[in-house]
Amino acid sequence: MLKKLRIEFNDDLFIRNKNHLEPTPKCEEILSQLPEIFDRLSVLYSDYSDWNISNLSGEVLLYLPAPLINIIAPPLLKKLCRLAPNLTVECANWTSDTVQALEEDKHSWGVSYLPVSSGKNLVEKQLYDDSFILIMGKKHPLTSSNLKEVFNYPICVTIIPGFSEGSRMEMLIKRYKMDKKVNVRLSDMSSMFKLLSTSEFIGTTSSLYKNALPNDIRCEALPPEMNPRLFKKPLVFFTNQRNSADPLSDWLYTEIKQIIDAL
């Protein structure tokens, strides 16, 4: 199939780099256009002119990354349950089992960071290119985001069960062989805020928290030594292929994106 596509597009599409394949610029260009094309094709086969969210009933499952569930779930669930009062919504953290759950149950949707090892039965739409910030107690003695000064204090990072990479902070330490280690990994943001407000720990978390931090927590930019491009994570909306054209999929994607944009 790849050979046929290479002939069709007159391009290698993927080039081997050591033990993996990397997309060519032509392939990247094609990939960037496919989501919109697939969405437009799905509309041709769908007739949801009479769809009304208030008529929904039964149960749906929503999976969100643990560090973001506290800021995305409340406004989303509040609006969804107000507009669809006969619907029961189960909202849970994204875990290592979520991909399988999404593939097996078409009445489920999820949000997670890439990379995710997902099968061909899932459709993904990008929500946001997330970046990261340092957070600490309001009275923390840190005076600058210089890397050496930051590393004078114990480090706490957010983790996402089911996300196939380690934290960006740990990747940086390993890459540059720094004499430092991450002291704590947490997925629950309430626990992290409690730890930071009562100690000299410094944490890292999503920039979406910048305007949603508790009063006793402040934030700083990442140290300038940390390349911002390496510290970005695409945040993606996932749905089962079988309900990719379901109006509820579009509604959920739009609402979640609006919540993220507002943050």
Characterise the protein shown here.
The protein has 263 residues and is α/β, with parallel strands linked by helices. It folds into 3 domains: 2-37, no CATH class; 53-129 and 233-262, Periplasmic binding protein-like II (D-Maltodextrin-Binding Protein, domain 2, 3-Layer(aba) Sandwich), CATH 3.40.190.10; 132-231, D-Maltodextrin-Binding Protein, domain 2, CATH 3.40.190.10. The chain is 33% helix and 25% strand. The chain has 8 helices and 12 strands. The longest helix is centred in the N-terminal third of the chain and has 20 residues, at 25-44. The N and C termini lie far apart (43 Å).
Inertia-based shape: flat
Beta strand %: 25-35%
Low-pLDDT runs: none
Q: Could you say what the CATH topology of the largest domain is called?
A: D-Maltodextrin-Binding Protein, domain 2
Radius of gyration: 21 Å
| Multimeric state | single chain
How do the strands line up in the largest sheet? 4-3-5-12-6
